[in-house]
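Contributing new records

If you add data, match the layout below exactly. Sequence lines come first and carry their own label; structure lines follow with theirs. Keep one chain per record. Anything else will be rejected by the validation script.
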Amino acid sequence: MPNDFLSFFLSWMSAPRRVGAIAPSGAALADLITREITASTGPILELGPGTGAFTYKLLKRGVRQQDLTLIEYGSDFMKLLQVRFPNARVLWMDAGRLTTERLYDGAPVGAVISGLPLLNMSTRKVVSIVSGAFNYVRPGGAFYQFTYGMSCPVPRPILDRLGLRATLVDRALLNVPPAAVYKLTRRPQMKLVTGSLAPESSTRVALEPIHHARDYSPAR
């Protein structure tokens, strides 16, 4: 949208660590982070949608607005999202509260799409967000995170602690700046079968409850 760059730039000027980008994500990155999404993936939880660049792409993938829950901390962005996606659930909240809020009954979410600037956040904050999101993700679901960094923005110790693994989906070299998308999924738990270890089928990893961090110092 024509005024999205200005909205992002002004938000970045007022809170650069929280916004983490001076411009909305481009088409190449939006295509990449939603590449594995279909109409049957929903419900979908989107964290830090900003002006809705990924959200528009999700709709083009066949996802219904009614299947979208958008978590946005920026008040200006939240008002814009409510206007642009009137049938989606738009919540003004810190994504670090996902461990304490109850957004769904059970765990129906097929995918989490994150535009949060994780690289600007504390370890405690990242744990709260990722573990809180996976509380809602059904078996086989995934958490998609983009980054401007050279490696996964969720460090290996956090992945190990939460029983997750990260795989590189691809890099969006045409995005400005170039970005990469990582897919986080649960590791299969192992059980003892006739003296050997074998993966259990569709076993959900139990996540350790994390108290939400009071500081909000979000980035990617």
